[in-house]
Amino acid sequence: VPAGSPTVDLKINGQDGTITVAQGQSAIVSWTANNVAAIEPCQATSQPSTLFQGVQPSRGVRDTGILHQDRYTLRIVCHNSAGQTAEDSVVINVGMYSGPQISLTARGPAETQFRESSITIPYDREATLRWTTSNATTCEVSANWPGAVPQVNEVSERGTGNLRRDQTYLLLCRGAGNTQNQKSVTINILPLVDLKIAPAGSANFTDGPINIPQPGEAALLWSTANAVSCSTSINWPSGAQPTTNDTNRQRLTGMLGGTQTYTLSCISPSGASLSDNVTVNVIPRDRGVILISRIV
Questions:
Q1: What DSSP element (H or E) covers 120?
Q2: Helix, strand or coil, per DSSP, at residue 178
Q3: Which of 7, 68, 180, 273 is most buried by its number of CB atoms within 10 A?
Q4: 256 within 8 A of 218, measured Cβ to Cβ
Q5: Do 218 and 202 form a contact (C-beta atoms < 8 A)?
Q6: pLDDT (tens digit per residue) in 79-129
Q7: Residue 149: Cβ-neighbour burial (10 angstroms; 0-12, 13-18, 19+)
Q8: 247 or 110, which is more confident?
Q9: Tens-place pLDDT, residues 194-242
């Protein structure tokens, strides 16, 4: 542009060219002209004509008001005292406004795919939340949300931290015209069922299987949590049975004559079930061999 030539920059919502806004929303028109006449430097026109019309100063900002029509074209022409002109234009496309658009999904620690509605993960493990928000003016979340409240237009994800009970996370966003949208996702937590075994008198509890000599006995060690009910296999040692919140409880099996598999099962508040089992192999002792020689 030669020195002294007029220039003008017309923007809509801070952007050049064409933008799209939702029906029922407004937009901000702004312009800046340089090297223009001091009196009545610019002339605005628009289609429809009521949106942006008439003599304009060299710079300004204007709210369009609520937009209903499918398409608006705005144009501004500015001149200098020598009669040279410069112009710029923008286009507003208006789409149907359906309110804020949001999504909320989650995945477990060993998963690569995010899922809607609900997922189930092991006890004391972390899930990852992923969300998107758009066309919103404000967003809010449930009290258990991990970290900061999502922004009104973003795509992000965040870990929940290790969870020991079921959690439901809620995301609600509000938009123009009192519209709102909300999504929730539930993380169901499996019960903790941890069963181990060792030879009687040993502190070396393992997942098994183990071998003990016949006759002999073994010791069971178990922990349970996040459960509403627990049950055992029919061969479980007699006495008090496992409960829904045990920590490192032990029980001797009694003397065993053969191989045994013990099973402990629990059900979580959400109805998820989990079982664990251990096996002890009972090895017969060598009876020895007596040789009798016959003397002739």
A1: strand 117-121
A2: helix
A3: 180
A4: yes
A5: no
A6: 999 999 999 999 998 876 667 889 999 999 989 999 999 999 999 999 999
A7: exposed
A8: 247
A9: 999 999 999 999 999 999 998 899 999 999 999 999 999 999 999 889 9
In which element (H, E) is residue 102 found?
Answer: strand 101-107
C-alpha angle with apex 236: 234 to 237, nearest 5 degrees?
135
DSSP string, 247-273: SSEEEE---BSS-EEEEEEEE-TTS-E
Please name the amino acid found at residue 140: E
What does the block give as tokens for 143?
A: 């009290």
Asked whether 131 and 102 are in contact (CB, 8 A), the reply is yes
Q: Are 100 and 179 in contact (CB under 8 A)?
A: yes
Which residues pair with residue 103 across a beta bridge? 132
Q: How far apart, in whole angstroms, are the C-alpha atoms of residue 80 and residue 103? A: 52
Q: What does the DSSP assignment read for 55-84?
A: EE-SEEEEE-----SSEEEEEEEEE-TTS-
